Amino acid sequence: MAKKNDLIYGINGPIIKVKNTDSFFMYEMVHVGDGLVGEVIKINKEFTTIQIYEDATGLTTRDKVVGMKKPMGVLLGPGLIGNIFDGIERSLGAIKDIHGDFIPGGCRIDISNNENLWNVKILVKVGDEVSYGMIFATCAETSVVEHRFLIPLGVEGKVISIAERKEFKLTDTVIEVKNKDKVVGLNLLQFWPIRQSRPVKKRHSPNKPLITGQRVIDTLFPMAKGGCAMLPGGFGAGKTVTQHQLAKWCNVDVVIYVGCGERGNEMTQILEEFGELIDPKTGKSMLERTIFIANTSNMPVSAREASIYTGVTLAEYYRDMGYDVVMLADSTSRWAEALREISGRLEEIPAEEGYPAYLSSRLAEFYERAGNFTSFSDRESSITLIGAVSPQGSDFSEPVTQNSKRFTRCFWALDKSLAYIRHYPTINWRLSYSEYVKELEPWFELNIGEEFVENRKKIVYILEEEAKLLEITKLVGQDIMADDQKLVLETAKLIRIGFLQQNIFNDFDKFVSLEKQRLMMSVILYLYKKSKELITNLVPMSKIIQLDIFQEISKMKYNMPADCLEKFKSYIELIDQKLDSIV
Ligand code: ADP
Ligand code: MG
Q1: Closest Cα to atom 22, ligand 1: which residue?
Q2: Residues with CB under 6 A from ligand 1
Q3: How far, in Å, CA of 108 to CA of 35, rounded?
Q4: Fewer CB within 10 Å, N or C, the chain?
Q5: Atom of ligand 1 nearest to the CA of 414
Q6: From ligand 2's centre to the CA of 325, what distance in Å?
Q7: What is the tens place of the pLDDT at every residue in 206-238?
Q8: 280 in helix, strand or coil?
């Protein structure tokens, strides 16, 4: 019989109270009723308050609450990659196979239910001294990711035994370590509390770009590996499509895609697409390096909060193995709304627009887990965090956008008015910024050439000039513009259409190497320079426009396979030939 004070005392949606205040601790995992997973979020003199991460419908005051004596956490081990989980790391694929489309309350099917045998290579010998973070074994988790098993935190000492076998289930003991009098057996599974970041040896400042193959990002607003970026945009502005593009193309080892509070069919779509897509880097399916976490709009709101922490904890786990990891969260606004809802039920005093006062510190705790690191396995690795933000009515002054801005250094502002004119990606070049430009310049100079950095500045300058001129033309019209001003407008248009716009459905254009980006810029700027010379020699701009050369260059992105970059020379020749014909 349960003691009376271990029964639910009060229920308010996903928030429950129990009178027992002695035997729980903060952030402890609890099981409620049929085993629904919850977390202790508040303890005071009278009550322990618990947030339930599953559908709480049907709970009554006769239901029991049991503390699990461990913090809310996730299981880590092989089998994560290629899988799809809910916010509390239940394996949705496996649940569907057994229970169909509905997740029964208290259902606990996670990676530990995986009966696979893993072919493990043990890297230590009996007698070796081991400590936290050392890699004691590896296995091929997928054909592209080697899973590296680290000595867990708190385990230190001599290896005293090694299993003779080659193949292991997740729960089979692989090695035993003796520390003083205590013997610890290590298997292929570990546990980690989701709210606590995993320790690292050292943090470094970001100095390498995250290459995305998207020109407006790589060239104009570059992102650093180990950095934080936000992607604000109103409904339909293109956040999800852009995040999918980043997940597909960015140059990392492991991608973690968290669908938080958005439509479920989008999650289905990305799963299907990724199943078919071939990763250009490895020639294998994208699923071989991707983990999905789905807490879509039809799933319990409270689990949205957990999904973000679960995602970033998995990111840290692979980071510790020495991998570059990117985590994409779509969308952090839905996560913040979950915080708001829970805070309301807790009757906390609301701050701006009803969000709790700790919104900002929660966002900080999340984004702080990004970075460039030396892990305890002595490997260089990184976590890049990219959060979509969905401000109501595209109003960027709302609290989630404003607070996220404080902790992210790349701001890719998605603009609905660009979506109206089908200018994709809709990243607005006037509103966006990247604070990584300066830090990444040395890398670009060394690896792509000084010209890349120089050309970028020129492109930015022309777009800025265009904006100023457009202001003026609004007042006085284009007719009285000087020819060099008309040339700026024409070139800026070419940059917008021929360079910033990118077609995700075109094979040559969906991913563009930095080398091709450099060459495209140089062709555009060559046309600009050469036209400017003509104008200085009093050739009228109207004559240059008649040549249709600007239009032709704007299509070069579609005529340039990645393996045939010499074609750029023919564009330079074409410019020479056409412009020289005027003279
Ligand atoms: P959000 O997530 O901001 O609500 P989506 O990313 O779902 O918006 O985009 C809405 C629609 O806009 C998509 O369904 C697609 O038709 C179109 N779209 C967005 N980005 C692109 C793109 N890069 N290329 C072509 N179409 C796009
Ligand atoms: Mg979306």
Answers
A1: 424
A2: 233, 235-241, 419, 424-425, 504
A3: 9
A4: N
A5: 3
A6: 22
A7: 999 999 999 999 999 999 999 999 999 999 999
A8: coil
From the CA of 231, how far away is ligand 2's center (Å)? 11
| Cα angle 146-152-153, degrees, rounded to a multiple of 5 | 140
**What percent helix, strand, coil does the chain show, rounded to 5?**
40, 25, 40
Q: Does domain 115-188 have CATH number 2.130.10.10?
A: no
Q: Which ligand is nearest to the CA of 237?
A: 1
Q: Is 239 annotated as a binding residue?
A: yes
Tens of pLDDT, residues 170-213: 999 999 999 888 999 999 999 999 999 999 999 999 999 999 99
* Residue-level pLDDT at 393: 87
C-alpha 401 to ligand 2 mean position (Å) = 16
Site to probe by mutation for ligand 1, drawn from 216, 235, 239, 241 as the one with most ligand atoms within 8 Å of Cβ, is: 241
Q: How many angstroms does the Cα of residue 557 sit away from the middle of ligand 1?
A: 21
- To the question of pTM greater than 0.85 for the whole model, the response is yes
Class of domain 448-580: mainly alpha
| Strands 8-12 vs 36-43: parallel, antiparallel or unpaired | unpaired
Tens-digit pLDDT profile for residues 243-262: 999 999 999 999 999 998 88
pLDDT tens digits, one per residue of 333-354: 999 999 999 999 999 999 999 9
The token pair at 577 is 């030939």
The verdict on whether residue 237 carries a ligand-binding annotation is yes
H/E element, 15:
strand 15-18
Residue 536 labeled ligand binder: no
Mean pLDDT over residues 3-7, rounded?
Answer: 75
If you measure from the C-alpha of residue 122 to the centroid of ligand 1, how many angstroms do you get, rounded to a whole number? 47
CB atoms within 10 A of CB 146: 17
Q: Is the pLDDT of residue 298 over 90?
A: no
Please state the domain extents for the chain. 4-71, 115-188, 202-425, 448-580
CATH topology of domain 202-425: Rossmann fold (3.40.50)
235 annotated binding-site participant:
yes
pLDDT at res. 497: 97
Residue 319 · residue 383 · CB < 8 Å: yes
Q: How many contiguous H segments (helices) and E segments (strands) does the chain have?
A: 16, 28
pLDDT at 63 over 60: yes
